[in-house]
Amino acid sequence: MDRITTGILLILSFLVGSIPFGIIVAKVKGVDLKKVGSGNIGATNVLRSMGKWPAALTLLGDIMKGALAIALGRYLGADSFYEGVCGIAAILGHDFSIFLKFRGGKGVATSLGVLLIYSPFVACITITLWLIVSVFTKYSSLGALVSFGLLPLNIFLLDFEPKEKLFIGVMITLLILIRHRDNMSRLIQGTERKIGQRE
């Protein structure tokens, strides 16, 4: 791909990632998501504030954003590295949405969407780890931290070719850790809200 096409693709990926599905779903239900629960725009806060079906719609929308960015890059002939960069752009769009004055969510579902196309087997491992930890501890944030904390290792062991994938995996992990700093602090203090726990 030439530089112009690459630039356009990255901008599109960021814009797609910026679509705040949680906010949209909540508005349909007459709820200002930023003013309820944790104030986060992701599926966990939607679940806490509005229930299972709105949360499922939000989760699906956020996953699709990441998957679409990778699929679009692949369709336009991006190599493995630039495919991954498109995924990173979508995650950044979710985390710092242009539609929300560069505020956003934690990026977990969008990251999973990226991995589902970019590295499907590793995505399945990551989802399984997230579910196991989240179900047994009732902390979605802990599930995300454990599953994505192990992401670079899983890529190294299970999908290291091409080698650029490891770099992309490390970048995804760093973004997840950065966006979960407050959650880590609350987990240590014992004040983190559990899945479905209301105010």
Which descriptors apply to this entry?
199 residues
Using the alpha-carbon principal axes, give the shape: globular
Continuous helix count: 11
* Secondary structure: helix percent: over 70%
Domain count, please report it. Answer: 1
Largest sheet: none
Radius of gyration using CA atoms only: 16 Å
Oligomer: single chain
Mean pLDDT: 94
What is the straight-line distance between the termini? 50 Å
State the low-pLDDT regions, or none. none
Strand fraction = under 5%
The computed structural class is mainly alpha
Number of strands: 0
* Secondary-structure element string: HHHHHHHHHHH
What does this structure look like?
With 199 residues, the protein is mainly alpha-helical. It has one domain. It is built from 11 helices and no strands. The longest helix is centred in the N-terminal third of the chain and has 24 residues.
Kindly summarize this structure in a few lines:
The protein is an all-alpha fold and 199 residues long. 72% of the residues lie in helices and 0% in strands.
Helices and strands, with pairings:
Blueprint lengths: L2 H16 L2 H8 L14 H8 L1 H24 L4 H16 L12 H11 L1 H18 L2 H10 L1 H8 L5 H16 L1 H9 L10
Helix pairs in contact: 1-4, 1-5, 2-4, 3-4, 4-5, 4-6, 5-6, 5-10, 6-7, 7-8, 7-9, 8-10, 9-10
